[in-house]
Each structure stands twice: as C-alpha cells, then as structure tokens.
Amino acid sequence: MSRMFCIPGIIFLFCAFVLSILVSISLPFLPALDIARAHMNGNALINGDTVNEIRFGVWAECTYKDDGSRICGDAGHGYSTSISDTNKDANVIIASSWTRGLAVHPVATAVTFIALLFSFSSHVTVTLIASILSFLAALLTLIAFAIDIALYAFLHHEIGKLSAVEGNTDTAPGFWLTFVSLILLLLAGCTVCFGRRRDRMSGASAYPSYPMSSTGKTPFWKRFRRN
Fold first, then answer.
1. Is it true that the peptide bond before 28 is cis, omega within 30 degrees of 0?
2. Which of 26, 31, 51, 73 has the fewest CB atoms within 10 Å, measured from its CB?
C-alpha cells in the first residue's frame, strides 16, 4: 500500500487505541476518566454518607465528600447506586441496566488493537482486513458512545427529580475521549481503504510493453492479447 496512506492510518489507529484503552480502564482505577458526573453541593446521601459529587465510570462509581475524600464501589460488570436528598424525602436509583452496557468499551479497544496490528502489513489482503476491522471498531465505539449518552441523559433526568439537592449533571472526560476515538477510527478505516484502492489503481495502470514491428507500430493482434 502507498506509504502516504499507510503511515496516517497507523497513527490514527494508534491514537484511537490509546484513548480507548484509557477509557476502558476508567473508574475506579483512573479517577479522572469517568463517563458522567453529578455535582450535588453536599445535599445528597449515598450509602448513608453526605456527598458532594458522584462519578460514573465503566467498572464502578466513586463519590466525593466536601473534604475531597473519595469512596469507590467494588469494581465489576454492571453496578447500581441509590441517591437521596439529605432529608430523605426523595430517592432515585441508577440501576445496573444503565451501566452494564459500558463493558462495550473494552471490546471496542480489543478490536482496535487487532486492527492496529494488521495495519502494519503491506499485503493487500491484510490491509483490507485492517480496514474492515477499523470500521468494526468504529461501530462498537459508536455503540459504546450511544450507551454513554443514554447513561448521561438518564442521570440528568434522575438528579432533576431531587429538587432539594439542586444538583447538575455533566459529561466527563471519558465521554469525550470516546467521541474522539470514534472519529479517529473512521479516519483510519477510510485512510486504509483509500490507500488500498490507490494501490490497485496504480497496479492496473501499468500496461505491458510489446516489441514494435518494422513500421514502428505495435502489431494489431498483440494489442488484444491476454497476459
């Protein structure tokens, strides 16, 4: 494949892989890379503790108190948490059905890594597989991003029910890193695909040369000869 298209494709895939793996690790291991967070100004109760903020990651949720201390739940696939105001007049539950789908993130990371490995090959068939895998990883990342949006929207809706909390919900760094990873994967897939097309076109344009006749022209019958 043309080197002009090969190198950018590898760079796009590598950057997408790095971002994707960071998001996949997420909470509770990387506190800054959560998906969505809610600020509750110390007016909410979670597990009996007054908290100022709650963050939702791929594997667990973490709560923050006014003094900055952090308490994270047990890491696992699908988790749930209950939030109420300090007066316990209202209570909302973020069920595991809204967090279980976040496990698509590491699946997209694995497919991105395989696509990255295939992209180093110069074989036409292997680069085609790399392009297909890039688009597959982009599809999985799109699904993960849709799940992130659903979690954020549901959290925003539920926090709104706690009028006494006066909280606000925001998207977090992991949310936007997933979006950037999606764009990079689409660029990588297109780059590898167009590079393969360019390679095929350049190969098809190379016509064989035939010896000329004594008149200086290629014999008529040789112009239609199969090679």
1. yes
2. 31
pLDDT at 160 over 50: yes
The number of beta carbons lying within 10 Å of the beta carbon of residue 113 is 18
Provide the mean pLDDT of the chain. 83
- Whole-prediction pTM: 0.82
| pLDDT tens by residue, 13-71 | 999 999 999 999 998 899 889 999 999 877 788 888 888 999 999 999 999 988 878 99
Range 145-180 burial, b when 16+ CB lie within 10 A, else e:
bebbbebbebbbebbeebeebebebebbbbbebbbe
CA distance 183 to 36: 20
Structure tokens at 49: 């503790």
Residue that the structure tokens 């908290």 belong to = 51
**Residue 4: C-alpha distances to residues 87, 198, 200, 209 (Å):** 63, 10, 15, 28
Reading the block at residue 125, the tokens are 């068939």
Alpha-helical regions (H) of 36-172: 104-119, 124-161
